[in-house]
Write a structure and sequence with these properties.
Blueprint lengths: L11 E8 L5 E3 L7 E4 H14 L3 E6 L19 H12 L4 E6 L13 E2 L2 E2 L1 H18 L3 E4 L6 H11 L6 E8 L6 H7 L2 H4 L15 H12 L4 E5 L5 H11 L3 E5 L1 H12 L5 H15 L3 E4 L2 H10 L1
Parallel strand pairs: 1-3, 1-4, 1-12, 4-5, 5-8, 8-9, 9-10, 10-11, 11-12
Antiparallel strand pairs: 2-3, 6-7
Helix pairs in contact: 1-2, 2-3, 3-4, 7-8, 9-10
Bound molecules: ligand PBG.
C-alpha cells in the first residue's frame, strides 16, 4: 500500500539480437537465457512482448563479417538486417514500439562506433554517416531512433534530417550519458564486435565513470538539440546520475541495465551465490526508485512474465 515505486511491464523494454538467415537460434554464452534469433524466430518473441504489455523492443543486429568495412556503408543499406527485422516486426505486431540503435559499431571492421582516420574518431564525418543510418531506420518503420554513438552534435543533425525527409513523427531517444564501461563486455560478444575492437577502447567519446556533472552537460546539449527522451547507461553503477538527470530535466529518462549487469546476476545465481531471480527484480525496482521512467533490460520479458504471475 505504501510502496513508493512500482514496476510494471509498461516500464520494461527488451533488447533483442538479430541473426541473418532463417530458422537460426544461438545461445549467448556470457548472457544465460538470451539468444540471437533470426527474424522469423523473433516474431513470436515480439508477439509475446505485446501480450505481456511491454511497450517496445530495442534491436541490435549481428552483422555478417562480409558486410562490415571501414566506412560502415551497410548501416544505411535499406535492405540490411535491421531494416528487414523492423519491417517484419511492424507487419506482425504493428503496436509494438521499435527502438533502432544508431551507431556504426555493428558495421565497422574496427568495431568503433564512429569513422576513423589514423586511429582517431572523426566526429563530424561520423555524424553524416549517422544521419544516413537514422533516416534508413526511420524509412523502414522504426518508431524511435536511439543514437548510442556519443558523437557531438548528432541529435540536432539527425532531427533536422528526419524532419526534412518528412519523418517528423520519428522520435529520438538519445543515449545522452553513456560511460566508457567494462560492463558492455557480454554485449560485444553477443553482436560480435569484441573481436573487431580487440584491445582498443571507446574512451575518447564515451564518458569517464568518475564524472557526474559532465553527464548533466551532455544531457543539456542533447535536450537543446531536441532529444525526446534521454538514456543513462550503464544502469546500477550510475543510479545517482539517473536521479540527477531526472530532477534537472524532467524529461522521459530511461536507464540501460546493460549486458554485464545481467550477466553478473546470472553467473552468481548459477553458482548458488545469490538468488538470481530476487536480485534481478530488486535491480529493476531500483531503477524506478532512482527516477527512471523505463528500463532497457535483458530480463524484461522474464520480469514481465513474473509480474503477470504475481
Ligand atoms: C554500441 C552499443 C553498446 C551497447 C549498446 N550499444 C556497447 C558499446 O558501446 O561498445 C551495450 C549494451 C550492453 O552492454 O548491454 N553502440
Amino acid at each position: 500500500m505504501v510502496a513508493e515505486s512500482r514496476l510494471t511491464p509498461a516500464d520494461l523494454i527488451q533488447p533483442l539480437f538479430i541473426l541473418d538467415g532463417s530458422g537460426r537460434r544461438q545461445a549467448i554464452e556470457s548472457m544465460p537465457g538470451i539468444e540471437r534469433l533470426s527474424v522469423d524466430l523473433l516474431l513470436p518473441v515480439a508477439e509475446r512482448a505485446v501480450e505481456l504489455g511491454i511497450p517496445a523492443v530495442a534491436l541490435f543486429p549481428v552483422t555478417p563479417a562480409e558486410c562490415k568495412c571501414e566506412h560502415a556503408v551497410e548501416a544505411w543499406n535499406d535492405d540490411n538486417l535491421m531494416c528487414r527485422a523492423i519491417r517484419a516486426i511492424k507487419r506482425h505486431c504493428p503496436d509494438l514500439g521499435i527502438i533502432g540503435d544508431v551507431a556504426l559499431d555493428p558495421y565497422t571492421s574496427h568495431g568503433q562506433d564512429g569513422l576513423l582516420r589514423n586511429g582517431l574518431i572523426l566526429n563530424d564525418e561520423t555524424v553524416e554517416a549517422l544521419i544516413r543510418q537514422a533516416c534508413c531506420l526511420a524509412r523502414a518503420g522504426c518508431d524511435i531512433v536511439a543514437p548510442s554513438d556519443m558523437m557531438d552534435g548528432r541529435i540536432g543533425a539527425i532531427r533536422k534530417a528526419l524532419d526534412e525527409a518528412g519523418m517528423d513523427q520519428t522520435m529520438i531517444l538519445s543515449y545522452a550519458a553513456k560511460y566508457a564501461s567494462a560492463f558492455y563486455g557480454p554485449f560485444r560478444d553477443a553482436v560480435g564486435s569484441a573481436g573487431c575492437l580487440g584491445k582498443a577502447d571507446k574512451k575518447t567519446y564515451q564518458m569517464d565513470p568518475a564524472n557526474g556533472c559532465e553527464a548533466l552537460r551532455e544531457v543539456a546539449l542533447d535536450v537543446a538539440e531536441a532529444a525526446d527522451m534521454v538514456m543513462i547507461k550503464p544502469g546500477l553503477p550510475y543510479l545517482d546520475v539517473i536521479r540527477r538527470v531526472k530532477d534537472a530535466f524532467q524529461l522521459p529518462t530511461l536507464a540501460y541495465h546493460v549486458s554485464g549487469e545481467y550477466a553478473m546476476i546470472k553467473a552468481a545465481g548459477e553458482k548458488g551465490w545469490l538468488d538470481a531471480d530476487a536480485a534481478m527484480m530488486e535491480s529493476l525496482i531500483a531503477f524506478k526508485r532512482a527516477g527512471a521512467d523505463a528500463v532497457l533490460s535483458y530480463a524484461a520479458l522474464w520480469a514481465a512474465e513474473r509480474l503477470r504471475r504475481e
